[in-house]
Every structure is written in structure tokens, then in C-alpha cells.
From TrEMBL:
Keywords attached to this entry: CBS domain
SMART domains: CBS
Domain CBS span(s) in chain numbering: 8-68, 75-135
Top-rank lineage group of the source organism: Bacteria
Name of the featured protein: CBS domain-containing protein
Key word Disulfide bond present: no
InterPro entries: CBS_dom (IPR000644), CBS_dom_sf (IPR046342), Diverse_CBS-Domain (IPR051257)
Keyword Nucleotidyltransferase: no
SUPFAM superfamilies to which the protein is assigned, alphabetical: CBS-domain pair (SSF54631)
PROSITE patterns: CBS
């Protein structure tokens, strides 16, 4: 059985909620990632959200806000999602499809150990699995 741990990439890095978005962008560049889990200030192992490069652009820069003054915590929204390291790939796909998310933190013993992204899915799954996943995650709901 292929697990979340088998397909994730390691080295996921936290951004504390009190850190500014310019620092988040620097960390993304340094680690070659497009998303960082946001930790509650002073509690590195408690996730309060995920910050993406798109969040920084759309939620800060495009609104004319200063990324050196807006914090990661300011943009944390919704309920964070994650998956246990020993979960099978079908559970990973369900979690991502059900919540229409493109990145999923992987935890083991309540500690962040990696992240699953679209690129990880593409490297490890069949074309049919990828097509089904993409249809669910990117499907638009009709507003008749």
C-alpha cells in the first residue's frame, strides 16, 4: 500500500503566525515551495492555516497592502487540513478532493514531516488517478 509518507516531499517549513509576508516569501524562495503551514505563535506544532504564494499576491499585494506589515496569521483562514503519514493514497486524494485543496501537510506523531502537492501526485499516481483528482479539485460549481 502506498502511503502519504511515500509520496510527500520532506522538509516542509513552518511560518509562525507573527511573521510578515515578506519573510514568508523569502522562506518560500529559499525552500523552493509555494506554500507554508502557519503555526500558532509560540506553538510550532499547532497549525492554524496554510499560506500560499497566491495568498500573498491576492490577499496583500493586489490590495495595496505592505507585505512587510501584514502577517501570515492575518491571512490564515478556514480550518487547516492535514493527513496522517500512514494514510493510503486514496485517503489523500479524498481529503484533497473533498476540500478542493492542492497542498496537504503530512503529520506523524502530531509533527509536520512533509507536504503533498500537485507535483507529488503527478510523480506518483496513474494518469487516471490524476485526472479524477483534477476533475474534483478544479471543478466549478454551477450557479444556475
Amino acid at each position: 500500500m502506498t502511503t502519504a509518507k511515500d509520496i510527500m516531499h520532506t522538509g516542509a517549513t513552518w511560518i509562525p503566525a507573527h511573521e510578515t509576508l515578506d519573510r514568508a516569501a523569502q522562506l518560500m524562495r529559499e525552500h523552493h515551495v509555494g506554500a507554508l503551514p502557519i503555526s500558532a505563535s509560540g506553538e510550532e506544532d499547532r497549525m492554524i492555516g496554510i499560506l500560499t504564494d497566491r495568498d500573498i499576491v491576492v490577499g496583500c499585494v493586489a490590495e495595496g497592502r505592505d507585505p512587510s506589515k501584514v502577517t501570515a496569521g492575518d491571512l490564515a483562514q478556514g480550518t487547516p487540513r492535514w493527513i496522517e503519514a500512514d494514510a493510503d493514497v486514496e485517503a489523500v486524494l479524498r481529503e484533497m478532493q473533498n476540500h478542493r485543496i492542492r497542498r496537504l501537510p503530512v503529520v506523524e506523531d502530531k509533527k509536520l514531516i512533509g507536504m503533498i502537492s500537485e507535483a507529488d501526485l503527478a510523480r506518483h499516481l496513474s494518469d487516471d488517478q490524476i485526472a479524477d483528482w483534477a476533475e474534483q479539485v478544479y471543478a466549478r460549481t454551477s450557479t444556475g
